[in-house]
């Protein structure tokens, strides 16, 4: 029995470091959509972070919308987590071309830790 609980909600973010805007919601959903978001993240080695409150708040945003200022600190922690897992530091003000787009974790939550 090595199955993990399936998240009822998952949210994926995208952040263009050089784009001048905030991270955007690029996918969100529950049930099978949440499972697909998590599966796709794993297939592309995108770190996953479980945060029920943040996933709930982000899931209320429209796809393509930048995150609101109220979520900047929480998402900054997610960015730091993603860069840490990847063994990288947050890009400087002049990122190298290969670091211009950061892949953010898909966020999900379930009643128990994955």
UniProtKB/TrEMBL annotation:
Signal peptide: none annotated. Residues 87-114 are annotated as: Disordered. One of its GO terms (biological process) is protein secretion. The keyword Protein transport applies. The keyword Secreted does not apply. Keywords: Bacterial flagellum protein export, Protein transport, Transport. GO terms for cellular component: plasma membrane. InterPro entries: T3SS_substrate_exporter, T3SS_substrate_exporter_C. It comes from the Bacteria. Belongs to the type III secretion exporter family. Required for formation of the rod structure in the basal body of the flagellar apparatus. Together with FliI and FliH, may constitute the export apparatus of flagellin. PANTHER family: FLAGELLAR BIOSYNTHETIC PROTEIN FLHB (PTHR30531:SF12). This is Flagellar biosynthetic protein FlhB. The lineage of its organism: Bacteria, Pseudomonadati, Pseudomonadota, Gammaproteobacteria, Steroidobacterales.
